[in-house]
Amino acid sequence: MCDSTTNRINTLQFGRGNISGQIPAVVGDLPYLEILVLEGLTNLTGYIPSTIGKLTHLRYFSVSKNSLSGPIPPALGMLKNLVLINLSFNRLSGPIPSSLSQFTQLSQMYLDHNRLTGRIPDSFGTFTVSDLDLSHNLLSGPLPKSMANMNYTSIDFSHNMLEGDVSVLFGKNKTVQEVFLSNNKLSFDISKVQFPANVTSLDLSHNRITGTLPASLASLKYLFQFNVSYNGLCGKIPTGGRLQRFKASAYLPNRCLCGAPLPACK
């Protein structure tokens, strides 16, 4: 699509077609491109060309649901005007480049359903993004402490190999609403965590979390999705809120949780 004023190409969009081959490096020679969307092209293979980093006007970049492989090029961090980046559902591998934290306008980042490895970069605690999805990868190690400085709306780090304490993601003054951390190796005392009042979805299942569920969970009046099963939790489930509305499967198995919807505490 061309801009009617400049007669320059500002949009390049293909989806669910029979396009095959690789993303040509010359796509980086379209300096006025603002939208680059190549989605659902299962025969689109090869690497993401680093020349895309030259598209300084780019605001929306999505290459989701293709068959792309190789590393994420660090040059993508040069896209200062990017609002959305979606690299999900590919075969991308290697570490997440720390340069991806250089986005200043970014609202949404989706790197999920790939084969990314290594740790979440420390620099990810220095930029602002509303929705961050790193799920279904091979990421490992602890979360960087710098993430305590961030305010998200939605976080999905599920189905990785992350370890340690993630309580830095929470706090009374945080704005986070959706948190999905299931199927990792997280280990921390949940009784010491302060959950923000606006949380709507919280999935901490299939980890190594210990302690008792804090009474503050009962005050989350917007909570409609909740799961802490397959952990090492103990004690009585807090009452007076929405926690009794969830099925027993949201709590089992655990070490010694009790109280509705589970059997009464002895």
Automatic annotation (TrEMBL):
Its record classes its membrane topology as: Single-pass type I membrane protein
Can you tell which superkingdom this protein's organism belongs to?
Eukaryota
List the GO cellular component terms.
Answer: plasma membrane
Cite the Gene3D superfamilies for this sequence. Ribonuclease Inhibitor
Q: Which UniProt keywords apply?
A: Cell membrane, Glycoprotein, Leucine-rich repeat, Membrane, Receptor, Repeat, Transmembrane, Transmembrane helix
Where in the cell does this protein reside?
Answer: Cell membrane
Q: Name the InterPro entries on file.
A: Leu-rich_rpt, LRR_dom_sf
Q: Does the keyword Coiled coil apply?
A: no
Query: tRNA processing: present as a keyword of the record?
Result: no
PANTHER family this protein is in? Answer: LEUCINE-RICH REPEAT-CONTAINING N-TERMINAL PLANT-TYPE DOMAIN-CONTAINING PROTEIN (PTHR27004:SF203), RECEPTOR-LIKE PROTEIN 12 ISOFORM X1 (PTHR27004)
Family named by the database record? Belongs to the RLP family.
Protein name as annotated: Uncharacterized protein
Q: Which organism is it from?
A: Escallonia herrerae
